[in-house]
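In the current project phase, the collection of sequences with tokenised folds has grown. A representative record is quoted in full directly below:
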Amino acid sequence: MLSLLRVHHIAIICSDYAASKRFYTEVLGLEVQQEIYRAARNSYKLDLALNGQYLIELFSFPETPARLSRPEATGLRHLAFAVTDLDATVRELDRHQVAYELIRIDEATGRRFTFIQDPDGLPVEFYEL
């Protein structure tokens, strides 16, 4: 068996680097650890952290294909963040004018959750602990 320790990072390729950088830093509040422009690839790589823990690599590449469908395309289905107060999270989303789905209840746990979309339509979940 592999001796995995934890998830190291999640890599996301975006179509509009400026919009995605704003979304992940200003709306979600992730912290920039490092930003690199790779001239040979005409690509940015933005390392983002949550509470000091490296979490997301945000990439830009020229001419990337669109996501096939939402959310049941092969590959990453959604990105989920744990929150302690879903009502406060929704108020903050309202403040940033980010649309969210109606709050639902997880049938297995009884916990509340909702979804938004990043600038490329990647579903992002907020799950109340």
The mean pLDDT is 91. The radius of gyration is 16 Å. The CA atoms of residues 4 and 72 lie 27 Å apart.
